[in-house]
Write a structure and sequence with these properties.
Elements lengths: L4 H18 L6 E5 L2 E4 H17 L3 E5 L3 E2 L3 E12 L1 H6 L5 E8 L2 E9 L4 E6 L4 E3 L2 E2 L12 E4 L13 H8 L4 E3 L4 H9 L5 E5 L3 H13 L3 E3 L13 E5 L1 H11 L5
Parallel strand pairs: 3-5, 11-12, 11-13
Antiparallel strand pairs: 1-2, 3-4, 5-6, 6-7, 7-8, 8-9, 9-10, 13-15, 14-15
Helix pairs in contact: 1-2, 5-6
The chain binds D-MYO-inositol-1-phosphate and calcium ion (CA) (2 copies).
Amino acid sequence: MKPTLPDLTALAQGAGKILRAGFRQTKNINHKREIDLVTETDQASEDYILQQINARFPHHHIIAEENGESAGDPDHTWYIDPLDGTTNFAHGLPIFAVSIAYAYQGRTTLGVVYDPMRDEMFSAELGQGATLNGQPLQVSQQTDLKQSLLVTGFPYDRFTNPDNNFNHALNFLMRVQGFRRLGAAALDLCNVAAGRVDGYWEMHLERYDMAAGALVAQEAGAVVTKKDGTPDILSAPYSIVAANPTLHGEMLKVLALPAA
Ligand code: IPD
Ligand code: CA
Ligand code: CA
């Protein structure tokens, strides 16, 4: 049995309640790696989502940030980020979300990203468009890189990983109106969908960071690919670029430039 978009929306609302309740209350903050945090709220949100999915869809395959990959039928795969923007959350900065996607036979068909602090529910179904709290979303029509506001992120292993996005960031900085680093990849993609930023790129995300937001952006009219322009963003090595078709092409050109 397949889930429906209202199923995912209900899960995101339930998890969002947990995130809201834990915000600025969370005491237990641990380090997964030197600067990669996890809080008791990440875990509580994921426990809730997994328990709900397992109760209704016990044979499905789940890829979740804190509990890893479960056994299950790969024809029905869920991608769960229970708290995207953990660093913001841990510092009391209200920019974070829960991200839930469902893929049928390898194709993402449903995605929701819920920002519980703004009560913003971004959702999309393959071929049906994307909405924010029920209102249709449309990407920006900006085609001039120089007039564009972009958003990006940097990987947690940036001190040791030479492919840390610094060179791309420098190349963009010299060619755009500005770019932001807001700290929640799923929301970055939804902000592209809503036309609040013109484009987004990032390297080395995980599938649970991107799957839902990528569908929302795509259904709002964005082209979403890897940095080499190939479409299968959920296959390694991971990278993502999202923008309207013309700006997307311009962004790929900048990503192909040598180090500045
Ligand atoms: C992180 C955020 C951030 C991105 C990182 C992600 P987390 O997810 O989405 O914006 O730059 O690469 O890992 O750890 O907050 O769920
Ligand atoms: Ca994440
Ligand atoms: Ca997370």
